[in-house]
Amino acid sequence: MNRDLDVVIVGAGVIGAVMAALLVARRLSAPGRVVIVCDRLPAIAPPDADWDVRVFALSRASERLLRMCGVWEALPAARRFAYERMRVWDASGDPEGAGSLEFDCARLGEPNLGFIVDGRALQRECLQAARAAGVAVIEAGIAAVAGNDADVSLRMTDGRELRSKLLIAADGPDSKIRDLLGIETAGHPYGQDALAAHVRTGKPHRNTAWQRFLSGGPLAFLPLPDGRSSIVWSAPSREAARLRSLDPQAFGTALAAASGGVLGDCELTTAIASFPLKLRYAAEYVRPRAVLLGDAAHVVHPLAGQGLNLGLLDCAALADVLGDGAGAGHYGEHTLLRRYERWRRSENLLAAAALDGLERLFSNTDPVSAGLRVAALTGVGKLPFIKREFALRALGLRGDIPAFLKAV
Length: 408
Known about the structure:
- By secondary structure, this protein is of the alpha+beta class.
- It is 34% helix and 30% strand.
- Strands 5, 6, 12, 13, 14, 15, 16, 17 and 20 form a 9-stranded mixed sheet that branches. Strands 1, 2, 8, 9, 10, 11, 18 and 19 form an 8-stranded mixed sheet that branches. A 3-stranded antiparallel sheet has the order 3-7-4.
- It is globular and about 60 Å long.
């Protein structure tokens, strides 16, 4: 099979599916001219399953983008939860006093600070939106990629071949396409694992996201609609392995102690998932007729929950840039892709550096650093303008974002 297409997207995760649906929604490609290729379709849980252990904190910009793609309204209301406040504090400080920082949507004039969304439900609706837009999904492994100034071809492990004007790699942090394109990466492992689970707490979460910075890594409680919280606990790999080995009651006791008892006793209601943490960023985002998106281009520390939001902004920026050339017959032209690269690589590197710096600062056990952290958090809390700018940027309402997201 050799089909001439506008776009081939490798990766059927949230980023790949959203990019496909967005291309059609923005009329940058016609139905049937975009194809998603993946070696294995994501597992889709039945609608009545418990919340996925892995959840996402979505910004306002991400919400707007998903609305454009027809995803947001299709996402069951029971699978998304608006949170109204966020409280951050250092282990040496107090959650509601010195060394803490609170963000409240009421003070920002916003209805909420964003949404906690079920990962599997989001994946299901994004893929459904792409299919509803006329995007075909092909299950096949990738054997080779070849590109030139005119087009790019993709040979699959079963011998089939696709040819298109543009190849988009959205196949995650261990991107096969990135490797086949010869794009190098840099970064480092954090020596930490993130533990994820859902817990029932002795005190109500109050529609608040809680995050405590510990010497081994941050611990976050994200509110869920049934009163539980989803935890993401970053800890040194050896300590994370020890915590995973505890029985549920002992784990709950350790979790309550690590949180300083801010939400009272903790009871596990799911199994514990874990994944290693690393910083990784691509040296380049583009090749002739090919481009990287999302985790294929950048992987950041999850301490601020910005990984998926950054990837969705990649999608929006690429659609914005391609809109300048698609109608004129220059779809996927290198000059357009380079514009996307300059735009998003600088933004993503700034975010990665900021998150990496925060992780290093708050993981430092030096007493002087601890004092500086408490002073910094307390100081920002007393500067409403700076605190507001932090919050609005996290919501995706500040910074260099595509104009069509601002206009929604």
